[in-house]
Write a structure and sequence with these properties.
Radius of gyration: 20 Å
CATH class of the largest domain: Alpha Beta
Structural class: alpha/beta
CATH topology of the largest domain: Nucleotidyltransferase, domain 5
Shape: globular
CATH architecture of the largest domain: 2-Layer Sandwich
Distance between the termini: 80 Å
Largest sheet: 5 strands, mixed
Strand order of the largest sheet: 3-2-1-4-5
Order of helices and strands: EEEHEHEHEEEHEHEH
CATH superfamily of the largest domain: ATPase, nucleotide binding domain
Strand content: 15-25%
């Protein structure tokens, strides 16, 4: 009973096909043009790699953000269209929880124990989006400790609970800023997930959708905004200046 996962929250697109506990395919690529041009082809590539026909998909999970406005809108709209066409349920899963999930899932066997994970997503000049999670003791839904919020790195480091792991958009500049802010807040023992382990797995969207029991009406799924989108009605053009009189 294969399920499809679509992650369009950033320029790195990912599509996965999952059957039970088996990941049949996970197709990942960097968007070179636009999601509207490339996403359906990426979905077809993942289905072909998995050897799964589109009409055998039983459910779809999609990343609802935060992330790029246009990319998320395209991903959610594509997932809704496929779900409605196939007559299957759709689930929306948050980006920050999906980012933290693999590290939380490993907490039971990690030494020393992972107490919490903070996932961050850079928003440019607006700061960063973040949320903190703790592993569920019974292997169920991750426990939300704080967020999601939008803050400066300094405010994030001060407000977040002491974390064993930080993951997400941790480029060099942000990692340095958070490290300094965490040390000032007395969280010097926190660690950063190395960049090569910060990739989101699209298959985790399916796993989280199951844990939350989130599959349902495709029309009820929408992009999750932490701030209003900047895209709006275009301002009217100024009236032309009157011609000078002679």
């Amino acid at each position: 009973m294969p399920e499809l996962a679509i992650d369009s929250a950033s320029e790195d697109a990912a599509v996965a096909v999952v059957d039970g506990e088996r990941v049949l395919a996970e197709h990942r690529w960097r968007i070179a043009t636009t999601y509207s041009r490339e996403l359906l082809a990426g979905i077809e590539a993942a289905l072909a790699q998995a050897g799964v026909a589109r009409d055998t998909i039983t459910a779809i999970a999609v990343n609802v953000g935060p992330g790029g406005y246009s990319s998320l809108r395209t991903g959610v709209a594509t997932a809704q269209g496929l779900a409605l066409a196939l007559g299957v349920p759709l689930a929306g899963v948050g980006r920050l929880e999906a980012q933290a999930y693999p590290h939380l899932a490993a907490a039971a066997t990690h030494e020393p124990r992972i107490e919490s994970v903070v996932a961050v997503h850079q928003l440019g000049r607006a700061g960063l989006a973040w949320a903190a999670y703790a592993p569920a003791r019974d292997g169920g839904v991750p426990q939300l400790l704080a967020g999601p919020h939008i803050d400066t790195p300094e405010a994030c480091a001060a407000a977040a609970p002491p974390a064993v792991l930080w993951c997400g958009d941790l480029d060099g500049a942000l990692a340095d800023a958070l490290r300094a802010a965490r040390a000032a807040a007395g969280h010097a023992a926190d660690r950063d997930v190395p960049p090569d382990r910060n990739l989101r797995a699209a298959a985790d969207l399916v796993r989280l959708a199951r844990l939350h029991g989130a599959y349902g009406d495709p029309a009820a799924v929408d992009v999750a905004y932490l701030r209003p989108p900047t895209i709006g009605a275009r301002a009217p053009a100024p009236a032309p200046a009157p011609s000078p009189t002679r």
